[in-house]
Amino acid sequence: MKYKFIDGGVTAPQGFTAQGVCASVKPSNKTKRDLALIYCDTLCNAAAVFTKNLVKSDTIAVTKAHLSDGKAQAVIVNSGNANTCNADGYEKAEQMCSIAADVLGVDAENVIVASTGVIGEVLPIEPIKRGAEAMRGKLSKDGGTNAAEAIMTTDTVKKEMAMTMELGGKTVTVGGIAKGSGMIHINMGTMLSFVTTDAAVSGEMLEEALREAVEDSYNMVSVDGDTSTNDTLAILASGKAGNPEITEKNDDYRTFVEGLTAAFRMIAKKLAADGEGATKLLVCKVSGAKTKPDAVKISKSVICSSLFKAAMFGADANWGRVLCAIGYSGADVDVKKVGVSFKSSKGEITVCENGAGIPFSEERAKEILLEGEIEVLVTLGDGDACAEAYGCDLTYDYVKINGDYRT
Amino acid sequence: MKYKFIDGGVTAPQGFTAQGVCASVKPSNKTKRDLALIYCDTLCNAAAVFTKNLVKSDTIAVTKAHLSDGKAQAVIVNSGNANTCNADGYEKAEQMCSIAADVLGVDAENVIVASTGVIGEVLPIEPIKRGAEAMRGKLSKDGGTNAAEAIMTTDTVKKEMAMTMELGGKTVTVGGIAKGSGMIHINMGTMLSFVTTDAAVSGEMLEEALREAVEDSYNMVSVDGDTSTNDTLAILASGKAGNPEITEKNDDYRTFVEGLTAAFRMIAKKLAADGEGATKLLVCKVSGAKTKPDAVKISKSVICSSLFKAAMFGADANWGRVLCAIGYSGADVDVKKVGVSFKSSKGEITVCENGAGIPFSEERAKEILLEGEIEVLVTLGDGDACAEAYGCDLTYDYVKINGDYRT
What we know:
Chain A has eleven helices and 15 strands. Chain A is of the alpha+beta class. The first copy, chain A, has two domains: about 270 residues, 4-Layer Sandwich (L-amino peptidase D-ALA esterase/amidase), CATH 3.60.70.12; about 120 residues, ArgJ beta chain, C-terminal domain (Ubiquitin-like (UB roll)).
């Protein structure tokens, strides 16, 4: 292992502080933190990836403009309002950057902005101004966890992560926070996630590393097949760890990508496990595929199937639905060679071999499927490519949460 | 109007009789009809389209082989078992054809076979033999409705349809039955649907007409995004109406396609309205698209969005989710020109213009959305292509039905 997970979050790397407060962005919210600031005491190399949805929050346009020089020093994020599909969205996003710049004493051009919440309601700027003002001088190492809370919407748990790795003989730290529970079907970005590191990495290599690490982590998560309008994953690198700056794809770069991928995967699993209404984390591991894209298609198709997701909610070993989802995935696969097993902390059970059912104990399968984390192992025998995708079960609560989200 | 809907079903056209009985294909089923026979007293021109899922029921392979000469005279269908992913599936499907051939006095090569139900359980042939035997000499015009019942699984209502049209001065009748409630995301076929007509149509023109009519009807339905392994839509034409046989794409052909499209659309709406757990039929009508494929992508994307479907269950005018689904549909669209309205028997309300929200009465929107059939009208202003797709809301009952389908 070239990396090690540690306690902490977005403020774990050297140079970073953060805070989160209740700004009442939604007037009815009087207690939940809904505005976050993340700050670095030095200008960072920075990169970000965004949603591929054509309908995009204006915050993304502003953040893209501010990252055009590959530099950033602070992040401002609100929950409770997505600032999407609003006529004055761009202007409001710029105002948020100016507010953060004033409170933190940085250049507004070096502020990243993001919003999450209801689409199509005008963003009130006064609560944000007041909330940011309340954080003046209050950002700290301890405040990172308040920032993690402030970006939550229907999330039920905070998502934080920190890890260390050795680069050029120096200990480098990576930290991050994320939110996301519904409208999750990530395509080249994620819901909102902010990752910090004190690694010294050139802007170009940071962007490369981000894109590589995202593929096998965030981009393999789906809660409900809906790609959000606001997905943003940004990374800031302060360089304070003192490692020799990564400027090419050397061993240090590869270690950094490997660690980053593991870090992102951990967050990806947290997002899936906390999917709206979810009672189970589902991991579909596909092996023996002809090509990587085939493995990716199959694992995502299984994890996205409403019928499979509902069966897992009911702890029903209905492997026919796995086969069905493999069949319509669009992957090149010989269905006569497919095998399916279910696995959890209670053990493993094979239910399908060579594309057909085999006798198995329903009782034993139930015992395995009643656990909170289920692996669906799909073997194809067509080659040696593999992939894994992350999702969750489809439950009554998903319907409840989304049947009346706005009120 | 060149066609007219009438009462009746699959036996409405001249020459056709049918029946359905309880054969206990699932041993626990002691009362519900689960085996159907459809018969024509003359050999028919016949055509069929099937699921695009790579995992296919062996019944489809057998039906394809039997239709290779473009002729058929009878149909045998069971519910309660999909005969899919079984090592002996092909053999069992052939046995079903032989059983029907014996009971009806036709050539087994002229029998179409289909199955629907649980995937991956061996099909018991004895109940089918006994059930078919019980129907010997009992097929009738009245039996069509029993056949419609026999092919149901989680459906809550029978789907039957009949219409007449004038072709070459003769009255031609079209009739049909269908089933389908879950695992519905139709791609070039449908769940199970059997359509009969006494029109005289050449085999080649019948196949052409079927393919044309399917595009704007069955292929625009989605209940849950899962394309079934057993989708089959077959049409049999007895020629008994005495119209001049359609052998080229003349006016009669176009009238036939127009009528068939309307007939299929009616069935498509019935499938969507009776989607598993559904309380509402959702119709997404897109107009002003640059191209037809763009309109199709958008209407399907909206109808498939879990978030939109859940919002409709809650009668929540959450148009942001419509915009979101348009954005990730993959269609070429200028989001700054999008307009969205909701419409039902209680009236119409516009909620979004030029890609941004407009003030509207939530109370009035609620009143409109509490109805059982909701139209979502999407205007694009990019061109003049249009499309409509059919779906249903996502409800607690969908989760309940699919949380424990097998037991």
